[in-house]
Amino acid sequence: xxxxxxxxxxxxLALASVPALAQTSPAPASAATDAKLPVVASFSILGDFVKNxxxxxxxxxxxxxxxxDTHVYQPTPADAKKLAGAKLIFxxxxxxxxxxxxxxxxxxxxxxxxxxxxxxxxxxxxATEPQDDDDHDHGKGKKHAxxxxxxxxxxxxxxxxxxxxxxxxxxxxxAADPAGKAVYEAxxxxxxxxxxxxxxxxKAAIAGIPADRRVIITSHDAFGYFGDAYGxxxxxxxxxxxxxxxxxxxxxxxxxxxxxxxxxxxxxxNVTNPKLVDRIAKESGAKVGGELYSDALSDDKGPAPxxxxxxxxxxxxxxxxxxx
Length: 324
Known about the structure:
Layout: H1 5-16, H2 19-22, H3 31-34, E1 37-43, H4 44-54, E2 58-64, H5 77-84, E3 88-91, H6 100-107, E4 112-115, E5 123-124, E6 135-137, E7 143-145, E8 151-152, H7 159-176, H8 181-207, E9 215-218, H9 224-230, E10 233-235, H10 248-261, E11 265-269, H11 275-284, E12 287-292, H12 307-323
Parallel strand pairs: 1-2, 1-3, 3-4, 9-10, 9-11, 11-12
Antiparallel strand pairs: 5-8, 6-7
């Protein structure tokens, strides 16, 4: 019998919940590391925010690394050890890390959990977007249902929202390490200024694309906040989670929309399988505009090792494909 993702996840968390593991102390660290506040971030983009605010006073460990998909991540016993040694655990919230609550419980961690999206108005999927709680075909006649709810968790795709993440991170670090208050405030202010400049550049870049060409297709619905903020219309055959799979009906609908609206380009994502986008491009006649970074950064050798790099790279890809 083929194991489902849920079964594999349950097995991994069962391992993590073994008492000996939950009580395991983190490995000894150097004196320099001991002096820093140990924190964990759930995924790479959030980890970058924390590093920018925390600076040299914080030691940041990230659970889901570069080019990896948080939606379908399978926690390991090593992840439980990371949480056990942390003072703060930063999560996105909005249902993005569906496995995190169980992992925290299994780890025995006493860390404060910080929801970085606190204060952000969640984006709800519209009636025309695919619903992740629908049944989807998974090959060989098999189906199963998903229930990720109507909320879009990809709030970081709006730079205005990224500033809210930064403020929440700043406040949490100050609460955990009051002696570092001045440092955290200065770091957050400096980084927010960079985000202000990035936001101005994003608005200018999208404004430079002809209005009738500001429509794109991506694998899953990760860019809704970006589209709402900067004036792009986004279509996605999959819903807000990559755990769902597009049905034949969804794919057919997208292809018809591409042809009817003359959508100029479809885009791959760094965390999704390219086969679906390639198929849509082939059947619709649209070109593949490039690869966008959605739910994860690249590694240090890639084009998007930081959040600011990621947004600028995506803007170049979008402008290049849609303006010509």
